[in-house]
Design brief:
Number of domains: 1
Keywords: Membrane, Transmembrane, Transmembrane helix
Transmembrane segments: 22-43, 63-85, 97-119, 139-160
Distance between the termini: 84 Å
Helix content: over 70%
Radius of gyration: 28 Å
Organism: Nocardia halotolerans
Biased composition (Pro residues): 181-191
Largest sheet: none
Structural class: mainly alpha
Protein name: Permease
């Protein structure tokens, strides 16, 4: 029997297992690279056209929808990530924490797609910028303002939660010291 063949107990050798893992990793990486290039040329144009259809060339609509998208699709993912961190600390919360992270990523997709238009350097991103300039004016700036407001609100929530936790900790510590019985005397002078 050669290395890599199935052994008599029905288990594969470690070389076969590692070879299969390497092949799967390379195949997955190739698929992801191909998907990236396809999506990088498709997503910015497509997303800009969806926004243009929503705003219809109106500055007021551009500002309104930009604020809504920036605020909601930043604040909700941040709160979900906070939930994931808090759940992760508890035992058995790894599945829920992982689900919260995945949902946070999905909810943040509108802002991430807008970011591919703003920061992208390829032709699709430039086409998306032109579409937004004409058909969705003021959307990008309002989206940024909404995201900043969401980050400030999130910082306030975290600060209030931290202050509440600190107050609870101090109250529990104070209660513990006031209800503790006095220590018995340890030296003959204290008797």
């Amino acid at each position: 029997m050669t290395t890599g063949e199935v052994q008599s107990s029905g288990q594969k050798s470690t070389a076969t297992v590692w070879r299969n893992r390497a092949i799967m990793t390379l195949a997955t990486a190739a698929v992801l690279v191909i998907a990236y290039f396809i999506l990088a040329s498709f997503i910015p144009r497509w997303w800009a056209q969806r926004l243009a259809g929503l705003v219809h060339g109106s500055f007021t609509q551009g500002i309104w929808w930009g604020l809504v998208f920036g605020l909601l699709f930043t604040l909700i993912p941040l709160l979900l990530l906070l939930l994931a961190v808090r759940v992760w600390r508890r035992r058995g919360g790894k599945f829920t924490a992982g689900a919260a992270v995945i949902i946070a990523l999905l909810v943040s997709l509108p802002n991430l797609m807008t970011l591919t238009i703003v920061l992208g350097g390829n032709n699709a991103a430039h086409a998306g910028e032109r579409i937004l300039d004409v058909d969705a004016p003021a959307f990008r700036g309002a989206c940024l303002v909404g995201a900043i407001v969401a980050a400030v609100l999130f910082a306030l929530v975290v600060g209030l939660m931290g202050k509440r936790g600190y107050s609870r900790h101090r109250a529990a510590k104070a209660e513990q010291t006031t209800t503790a019985p006095p220590a018995p005397p340890t030296t003959p002078d204290e008797l």
